[in-house]
Amino acid sequence: MQRWAIWVNFRHWIGLRGLKLNSESYKVQTVVIGAGVVGLAIARELARSGREVLVLEAGSRFGEGTSSRNSEVIHAGIYYPTGSLKAMLCVRGRELLYEYCSSRMVGHRKCGKWIVASDDRQAVKLDAICRQAQTNGVRLQQVTGDAVHAQCPDVKAAAGLWSPETGIIDAHGLMLSLLGELEDAGGQLVVNSPVLAVDSSHGDHRLTVGGKAPVTLIANEVINATGLAAPGLAEGWGGLSGSAKPKQWLARGVYFAYSGTHPFKHLIYPLPEPGGLGVHLTLDLAGQARFGPDVEWVDSEDYTVDPNRISAFVEGIRQWWPSVDAGRLQPAYAGIRPKLAGPDGSFADFRIDGPEEHGLAGLVHLFGIESPGLTSCLAIAEYVKQQLS
After folding, report:
1. pLDDT of 142-187, one tens digit each?
2. Residue 140: is its pLDDT beyond 60?
3. Does 80 reside within a domain?
4. Which residue spans adopt a coiled-coil conformation according to this UniProt entry (predicted)?
5. At 212, which CATH number?
6. Helices vs. strands in the chain: H and E counts, helices first
7. 301-335 tens-digit pLDDT
8. Would the pTM count as exceeding 0.85?
């Protein structure tokens, strides 16, 4: 019953906004494929610019993919290479996100984080991280191990960096807010509507949409914001050259929750590792602690949390929190990062391909939108709108 009501809403939206070409084909202005946090942010931005926007989501709800399986951290923009999209969009996105959350009463807290070096060998690497952050326009304070211990008595550290701009956010609350503003601007989300194929070889974009009542949509603009599914959708995209279809690797990360009380008020991060930022401690808005994610390269989407990985977690955590109680760690959830570089540890930037990259007017593909995608979502939306100008 719920699914049918949703599809009726789609037909109603098409009846009001779309131009009916025949019994199963409709003309629409702008289609965003994918209703994660990035897709919803883009749709909101485009709808507020005066466009008629339709968001198509294959699942039964918004935000069930990568957007619901991350650390819910607002990143400062510390580590990313100067001039990269990740660096620029994270810093800009963080500023936009704090302002947005404050003005819309979306749950968040600028709690700050410590990056800790557990021994002298790691401590020498903090200088490079501090310089990179400064180049990116991010404030960090470099301190001694004693200074870290004064703030976090339970943490073992030879030295550390304090990031006051790092925070946490209610990702679901953010997506609800973005969806509400999309609808206020006249846009519409339609779930249970998988895009099966797209052909952009005839001057427009023809989308074959599945579901209970399959339909063909002909759009002026299309944004592929399907996260993990983006390269697969692009692979069969008519009119898109082979060079515009990147290879993707999948890096699974699991999280373990820590039951009961703990001594932390700030996030605690070890030094970064290839593929991620190391097994770190994050907090939710209720104050519960969780650890993760680790990095495991996988061949397919598999969100299993193997309880046996707890031993590796405990070993990593004890490098900076010796008194962690392993018995209070419990399997929580897993997420998968869409990577444009493999296990060799090389850096891969966000890839946001507009008409200048692939030569097709009105089309933007988003590939490799992993961390800091949540932090960057509002800035990514601005960037996509510029690509379509």
Report:
1. 999 999 999 999 999 999 999 999 999 999 999 999 999 999 999 9
2. yes
3. no
4. none
5. 3.50.50.60
6. 11, 21
7. 999 999 999 999 999 999 999 999 999 999 999 99
8. yes
Beta strands in 111-153 (DSSP E): 113-117, 141-144
Percent of the chain at pLDDT > 70 equals 92
Distance in angstroms (rounded) separating the CA atoms of residues 173 and 106: 6
Instruction: Assess contact for 367 and 338: CB atoms under 8 A.
Output: yes
Q: What dihedral angle (degrees, nearest 10) is formed by the CA atoms of 215, 217, 223, 229?
A: 20
* Position 87 in a domain: no
Q: What is the DSSP letter of 192?
A: S
Categorise residue 302: left if φ over 0, alpha if ψ from -120 to 50, beta otherwise.
Answer: beta
Helix (H) or strand (E) holding 346: none
d(CA 266, CA 281): 9
DSSP 356-388: HHH--TTEEEEE---TTHHHHHHHHHHHHHHHT
Contacts of 7 (CB under 8 A, 6+ apart): 190, 192, 211, 212, 213
In 3D, which of 201, 303, 219 has the Cα closest to residue 255? 303
| Residue 2 pLDDT grade (very low, low, confident, very high; cuts 50, 70, 90) | very low
Res 45: pLDDT: 98
179: three-class secondary structure by DSSP: helix
The residue-averaged pLDDT of 26-44 equals 97
CB 252 within 8 A of CB 298: yes
Q: Indicate which CATH number applies to the domain containing 131.
A: 3.30.9.10
269 and 335 belong to one structural domain: yes
Q: Are residues 160 and 255 in the same domain?
A: yes
How far does the chain reach from its first CA to its final CA, in angstroms? Answer: 40
Q: What does 223-261 look like in DSSP terms, one character per residue?
A: EE--GGGHHHHHHT-BT--GGGS---EEEEEEEEEE-S-
**Cβ density class 241-266: b for 16+ within 10 Å, e for less:** eeebbbebbbbbbbbbbbeeebebeb
pLDDT value at 7 more than 60 = no
